[in-house]
Design the sequence.
């Protein structure tokens, strides 16, 4: 089997391992790397990325933990052949509202389990320069929140949560959060921009800004428990919002 032709960039230095994983995940998502494809060898990855062996091995271990890659002794690392059997294709137009609702609720449940602890770690470990970048990201989030479909708002919102994970000083946290954020593609997020009339959009925006500001303030003030509580409140709010946008129907049972 020939190895797929992929191009890799020198990874970001702040989260070296996470950057390697991000690039390989992107190649899997866009189809350059297909289920069953063999990844370049460790030596090839070292040469392509310009990094050490330990960073490459840690990144490959991360992909294995995420369930995207399997290591075959004596053969190398491969994209899992049954990848699509346990990672649902959320872009399918025939995906029922009930299933979309349930999957979003499950995603929020998973994010709550992960990001609450991340917020506490960030409050204890964040570096001053990271906090400065995070505040700028929050300012962009507030600036563009008037249009939930604005790519600049979506980017700022994602960067807010990725920066929070980065401040935990654990690259695997960044991987996990990015995977969660990317779990729902843009085409399906459009449904969430068409909110039912029962939702006051101005109040929704104000609530979203407050929830994120509470997280920011708690982390900046080095208050781990308050940061965890603020993140927990954010996930609770997201859960309630999904229930309003995707109301349960009779075929739920």
Sequence:
């Amino acid at each position: 089997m020939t190895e797929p032709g992929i191009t890799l960039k020198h990874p970001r230095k702040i989260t070296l391992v996470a950057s390697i994983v991000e690039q390989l995940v992107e190649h899997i998502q866009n189809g350059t790397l297909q289920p069953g494809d063999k990844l370049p060898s460790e030596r090839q990855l070292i040469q392509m990325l310009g990094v050490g062996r330990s960073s490459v091995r840690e990144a490959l271990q991360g992909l294995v933990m995420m369930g995207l890659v399997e290591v075959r002794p004596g053969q190398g690392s491969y994209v899992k052949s049954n990848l699509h059997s346990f990672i649902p294709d959320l872009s399918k137009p025939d995906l029922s509202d009930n299933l979309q609702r349930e999957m979003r609720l499950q995603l929020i449940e998973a994010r709550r389990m992960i990001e609450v602890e991340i917020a506490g770690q960030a409050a204890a470990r964040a570096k001053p320069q990271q906090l400065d970048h995070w505040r700028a990201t929050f300012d962009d989030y507030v600036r563009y929140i008037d249009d939930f479909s604005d790519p600049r708002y979506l980017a700022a919102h994602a960067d807010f949560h990725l920066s929070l994970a980065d401040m935990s000083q654990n690259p695997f946290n960044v991987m996990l959060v990015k995977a969660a954020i990317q779990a729902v593609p843009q085409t399906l997020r459009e449904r969430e921009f068409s909110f039912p009339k029962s939702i006051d959009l101005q109040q929704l925006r104000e609530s979203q800004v407050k929830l994120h500001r509470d997280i920011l303030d708690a982390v900046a003030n080095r208050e781990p428990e308050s940061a965890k509580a603020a993140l927990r409140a954010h996930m609770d709010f997201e859960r309630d919002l999904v229930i309003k946008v995707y109301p349960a129907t009779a075929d739920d049972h």
Q: What stands out?
A: Residues 116 and 228 are 5 Å apart (CA to CA). The two ends are 46 Å apart (CA to CA). DSSP finds eleven helices and two strands in the chain.
